Amino acid sequence: MNLQxxxxxxxxxxxxxxxxxxGETIFLIGAFLARVGYLxxxxxxxxxxxxxFVGDNFWFWVGRHHGPALLRRFPRVAxxxxxVNALIARWRFLAVVMLRFAVGLRTPGPAVIGMGxxxxxxxxxxxxxxxxxxxxxIGGLGWTFGALAERWLGEARKVEExxxxxxxxxxxxxxxxxxxxxxxxxxxxxxxxxx
Length: 195
What we know:
Elements: H1 3-20, H2 24-35, H3 41-73, H4 75-91, H5 93-99, H6 108-115, H7 120-153, H8 156-189
Helix pairs in contact: 1-2, 1-3, 2-3, 2-7, 2-8, 3-4, 3-6, 3-7, 4-5, 4-6, 5-7
């Protein structure tokens, strides 16, 4: 199976799974690929939005039912507690929406909120709004980047080849970079786990 067929066949599933975690990079690439014709933008946005919604609800309920164990196991979650609690104290419902756009807090944020007093139904509503807004904004950015790339590079086939090359590179580089950065951080701080 060539890369184009792989993207067309597994692209939406990859975007859904990536969005469960902090998957902006894969989502941006998916929107870019929609611009050059490999995927459909509404489907890309829907996959990302649903994945983000499911992932944050999962982490909220993990925090609600296993908060103390989560804090012991994952220092990154424990480190996020003061920042997330400050956002919740100030913005309440809107903090859930804002956390969707906060790099580094998107995964631990819902777990921390789950440990607090916010009712589950309120989190689910705010999370749904945040997931929709996030899907529209990030999807729009990826689409716009694709349009700019077409304008700058001209030839559509060249843009497609560059896009597929970027996908291949990022599918390898992003996970490797995250592992390396996490290990460097753990060495520097003396911590042993990450969320």
